Structures are given as structure tokens and as C-alpha cells.
Amino acid sequence: MLEIKNLTVQVGCREILRDLSLNIERGEVHVLFGPNGCGKTTLLMTLLGFPNYKVTRGSVRLKGVEITTLPTNERVRLGLGMSFQHPPEIRGVKLGEMVNIALGRKEGEIDSEVVGLARRLNISVAFLNRDVNLGFSGGEVKRSEILQLLAQSPDFIMFDEPDSGVDIENIELIGEVMRELLDRNKMPSRREKAGLIITHSGSIMRHLNADRAHVMLDGRIACSGMPDEITRNVMANGFERCVELCKTGRENKEGLE
Ligand SMILES: Nc1ncnc2c1ncn2[C@@H]1O[C@H](COP(=O)(O)OP(=O)(O)O)[C@@H](O)[C@H]1O
Ligand SMILES: [Mg+2]
């Protein structure tokens, strides 16, 4: 589904991602950990094609199509979707109107299907009538992002800290909807969707039963493994030590072989 090869990215005159490679197959969900500022959001913004993120080397293929030169709208049409860590406020555009358009409905009156989707995320009609992200609380922003994804139903979904600032009850709600968006309720062989999730907490991962986890350090994937193992290792030892242990583990294994 997604194949990133030797990706190097500059923001302004600084190199943020270096020689990063990552493969995510159809039906898989991967988790990305890493300390603040290591480049996680930069990776997602680059994949979506924001112009400030300059690809200086490498390639990205989505469903076999090279996307690094495509504008964002074409990437989205191809099936890419994202829930932002810090989405912008959009004055004068109501959330309900935006979701109407994402569902392919006419502008204007909010569609009953939009109201139905919103209800699943505990979002009221009054809330749908508010300007996008204007004065939304942290948790409301996250639920509004997930609502837009429900309407778009993308094939490859990137979630940038979908759980940060969300209360316990709403984490349950968001986790359930993410499960559905990523086909995690289906048998593995029937899963069509795939995704990449950035998170700092284990709570959302309990819902998703992810296939693989990675630790990013300084713009590179420094360690990969099974999500449970990596989570335990990061929680117990911190990011840098986790990566060291990951490397020595690999060396030991290689030594045995
Ligand atoms: N527009 C920008 N201009 C300059 N530096 C940026 C810009 N966007 C991100 N950065 C820098 O790139 C680094 C990686 O940021 P980011 O990808 O947001 O990290 P993360 O999501 O892992 O916390 C940080 O040092 C950040 O300050
Ligand atoms: Mg970030």
C-alpha cells in the first residue's frame, strides 16, 4: 500500500528526515513512536504533500503510484487521508458543511448521514454548525478530524496523535471508530485499508491491535518490532535506550546465526 524508500526531507534549510525507508502492506497498521521534534509529523506532512516539506532524495509509492510530485488533492483522491495533530482554524466554514462535501453531498443544509456519523462520535448538530476548529477543545478537535475521515473513508490513513488531549470516555469512542476505519474488525485476509499512527500513549493501541511499531530518532527509523515489545521497551527504558537494546538484540541474533 505504502512504500517509502530512502526519503530525505528538508524544511526551510534544515534536513529533518534522513534516508528513511518504510513499507506498509495493505491490511496492516503500524505505530510510530519517537521523542518530540524527531520528525514524526514532518513525515506525515511530507506524505500528504505540503509544499514546505521538500523531498530532496528518495521515493514514496502509494498503491504503486509515485506520489512525491503529485499535488495534495491528487494524493487524497488516490486514497490518502490524515487526522492532523494541529489542524488549522477555518473561519466561515462550518464543520457540517465540510463533512457534507467530503461525503459528496451538496453544500448548504447538513445531510442526515453527516448527522448520523457525528452522533457516533458524540458530536451534536449544534457543534456541526460551528466554524471548523474555531474554539474547539483539544478533544473536540480530534473527534472532528476523525469525523472528516469517516466521511472520506480513505484507503491509507495517517493519524497524528489522535489521542492527545482526549478524555478516557472519548478515547474509547475514537478507538472504536479508528478500528472500523482501518478494517480491524474484519478478518486479516479481508482487510483492505492500512494506516500509520503516531501516539505517545498505549491506550489507543489496545483498540487497534497493530501489526508493527517503529521508533524514530533524529529523522530516521532507528528500531522496528512487534508493538507490544517496542511499547514495553520504550516505557521501561526511554527512546534512546530502546534503540540501543534493539541494535544489540539484532547483533546478538546475528551472532547466533
Ligand atoms: N516549518 C518549519 N520550519 C522550521 N522547522 C520546522 C518546521 N516544521 C518542523 N520543524 C522542525 O522540525 C523538527 C521535527 O518536527 P516535527 O516533525 O513536528 O516533530 P515531531 O512530530 O516528531 O514532534 C523540529 O525540530 C521542528 O522544530
Ligand atoms: Mg508531531
Can you describe what's shown?
The chain has a single domain, classed as 3-Layer(aba) Sandwich (Rossmann fold). Helix content is 39%, strand content 28%. It is built from ten helices and twelve strands. α3 runs parallel beside α6 and α9 packs across α10. The radius of gyration is 19 Å and the shape is globular. The model has no long low-confidence stretch (mean pLDDT 92). Adenosine-5'-diphosphate (ADP) binds next to β2 and α1.
Summarize the structure.
Helices cover 39% and strands 28% of the residues.
CATH class descriptor: Alpha Beta
Largest sheet: 6 strands, mixed
Q: Uncertain runs with pLDDT below 50, 5 residues or more?
A: none
Shape call:
globular
CATH H-level superfamily: P-loop containing nucleotide triphosphate hydrolases
Overall mean pLDDT stands at: 92
Q: Helical residue percent?
A: 25-40%
Structural key phrases:
257 residues; alpha/beta; Rossmann fold; six-stranded mixed sheet; four-stranded antiparallel sheet; binds adenosine-5'-diphosphate; binds magnesium ion
Draw up the topology in text:
Layout: E1 2-11, E2 14-24, E3 29-33, H1 40-48, E4 53-62, E5 65-66, H2 72-77, E6 80-83, E7 90-94, H3 95-102, H4 112-120, H5 125-128, E8 131-132, H6 138-152, E9 156-160, H7 168-181, E10 194-198, H8 203-208, E11 212-217, E12 220-225, H9 227-237, H10 239-256
Parallel strand pairs: 3-10, 3-11, 6-9, 9-10
Antiparallel strand pairs: 1-2, 1-4, 4-5, 7-8, 11-12
Helix pairs in contact: 3-6, 6-7, 9-10
Bound molecules: adenosine-5'-diphosphate and magnesium ion (MG).
